[in-house]
Amino acid sequence: MKKQLHPVKRRKLVILGTGGTIAGKAAHASDNIGYTAAQVGIDQLLAAIPALAASGLIISEQVSQIDSKDMSFDVWARLAARVRHFLADDDVQGIVITHGTDTLEETAFFLQLTCQPAKPVVLTCAMRPATALVPDGPQNVMDAVAVARHPEACGVVAVCAGTVHSAMDVQKVHPYRLDAFSSGDACPVGYVEEGKLRLLRNWPVPQAGIACEAIEKVATWPRVEIVMNYAGASALTVQALVDQGVRGLVVACTGNGTIHEDLQAGLLSAQAAGVRVVRSTRCPDGRILPLPGNTIADSQGLSPVKARIALMLDLITEDQRPSAAGQT
Ligand code: SIN
């Protein structure tokens, strides 16, 4: 009789459910758009994927059940706490999160900055509800599990339609197609083909300097909003936001960070009054190339929604410093 001297122990995978179209239900199988998101519980969703049985030990938890257009700071804080909890467990190899596509890129970026995982945290989703004739959710979950099981995987990534995107670059670029995400000109991290990962570039690396414990007190998160530059843009919205105590503003600028002169005047006076202002570009690809004499900082390549999260976390970190808390 053969005895296995060193049995290989497969570590646990955790799957966290948050809602989205992947858990959506429509009245008819042929209806791909008139569905209600976030109806199927995570256990039921996974039970409908028999092939998962061959993927090792999986435990699941429902963290929220929402349409991701309604994503809130409360859900983000709860999700980050569960991610950190499971990442700290030596028996856990990685985490998969099922999520709506609409704000997936924001949650992915938020988790990358606040959890900075050395293990894989893989967000996945679907563009067709669970009741569709051909739902895309099950294959996306299988692909996400393959990525989370990869021995070298780390950081937060998104997996959709066989493509692995870094949390830093991923953006939803199509409202209907199954392959709805892009990494822009950064290119994807890799592809999943027949359950195998073909790696193209490095995994996302941890960013320095974000205090993750500080995000637990959601009520104290600073208000940061996005304003957009467009033909006829004015300072009206900026003034209204400043009057309401906004702490930070991200401008979705035209082109290489350009801003209408009227909006720019409002932003500069907000900045002079202590509001943090950051320029990002509304172009989906590329980044702002700064010029000497620029008076408003740029987002270092982050899209407007990600620049907003970075600025919010930066302000939270700033508020935590002893001098800000009045403890010298
Ligand atoms: C959502 O973002 O929750 C709904 C849309 C989707 O998942 O595709």
What attributes characterize this protein structure?
single chain; 328 residues; alpha/beta; eight-stranded mixed beta sheet; four-stranded parallel beta sheet; 7 helices; 14 strands; 21% strand; binds succinic acid
Describe the 3D structure.
There is one protein chain. 25% of the residues lie in helices and 21% in strands. By secondary structure, the protein is an alpha/beta fold. The strands form three sheets. Strands 2-1-3-4-5-6-9-10 form an eight-stranded mixed β-sheet, sandwiched between helices. A four-stranded parallel β-sheet has the order 11-12-13-14, sandwiched between helices. A two-stranded antiparallel ribbon has the order 7-8. The longest helix is centred in the last third of the chain and has 17 residues, at 304-320. Bound molecules: succinic acid. Succinic acid binds at residues 19-21, 37, 67-69, 100-102, 125, 127.
